[in-house]
Design brief:
220 residues, alpha/beta, Elongation Factor Tu (Ef-tu), domain 3, Rossmann fold, 5-stranded parallel β-sheet, 25% helix, binds flavin-adenine dinucleotide
């Protein structure tokens, strides 16, 4: 794992309430699409983020929401172009994708970021996309997937879509990303439907708590 200085190059608003920060690393920071690192911001501390850039470009980008107003997010929002942060990486639990296999991506809100990086880093994807909550980067990832892409506002309709997709894509590998309670609930649904553990891959954003029931769908 490397500790690398990153210089902020651009800040882009997504239109759905997410902000993307793109940095130039001082030394090359290689990562597999879907991995990320610990980002250390002066005055804000350190938090883990998925790198959302195309891993062939040499840039390092992260995407997040700033609404919590936490010390970390205030420090991040206060960065100017040319300011420096540090990254420790690469880390991440998602395996690399086998292009010969079919995949199903299931994301909650900003949990879309591993799939954004995968979409940007590959020329072609044999994947179905199921997204619930705030539609961060849905359009961009949907364009990159060759299979069905659905956005859902409610957990119940997502569950129904998962049910249908299990039948439609019986041999698919499932990639789950979002808050811990969301990822755990999806994994239970898949296991209960008889999917073997080797087909279920989890990326848990463990820093993100669910504050009140339903909050995660409205604001994630
Ligand atoms: C492997 C990994 C990858 C990750 N990748 C990403 C990523 O790509 N993008 C990303 O955004 N996050 C990612 N995270 C989560 C990230 O590290 C932070 O935990 C997350 O962004 C929340 O940071 P915060 O400072 O806003 O949270 P905190 O201030 O610690 O708050 C935690 C949660 O409390 C709630 N909350 C706190 N204050 C308020 C408020 N005022 N109003 C409403 N709700 C509130 C929110 O649900 C918030 O998410 C990842 C985590 C892991 C482990």
């Amino acid at each position: 794992m490397k500790f690398t200085a990153l210089t902020l190059e651009t800040v882009t608003e997504s239109g759905t309430g997410a902000t993307e920060f793109s940095f130039v690393p001082k030394r090359p920071l290689t990562f597999r699409a879907g991995q990320g690192g610990l980002i250390i911001v002066p005055g804000g501390g350190a938090k883990p983020f998925t790198f959302v850039s195309d891993n062939r470009t040499g840039h390092i980008s992260i995407a997040t929401t700033l609404q919590s107003g936490s010390r970390f997010k205030r420090a991040l929002a206060g960065l100017g172009i040319g300011d420096q942060v540090h990254a420790l990486g690469a880390i991440g639990s998602l395996p690399s994708l086998d292009p010969a296999e079919s995949q199903v991506f299931v994301a909650q809100g900003i949990g879309m970021t591993p799939f954004l990086s995968i979409a940007r880093s590959r020329d072609r994807l044999n994947a179905t996309l199921l997204h619930v909550g705030a539609p961060h980067f849905f359009d961009e990832v949907a364009r990159a997937t060759s299979g069905n892409a659905e956005h859902h506002h409610h957990r119940e309709s997502l569950k129904e879509a998962v049910r249908r997709t299990i039948i439609d894509r019986p041999a698919a590998h499932w990639f789950l990303s979002g808050r811990p309670d969301f990822v755990a609930a999806c994994a239970v649904q898949l296991a209960d439907a008889g999917l073997p553990a080797r087909l279920i891959h989890k990326d848990t954003f463990w820093g993100m708590r669910t504050t009140t029931p339903g909050y995660e769908l409205a604001h994630a």
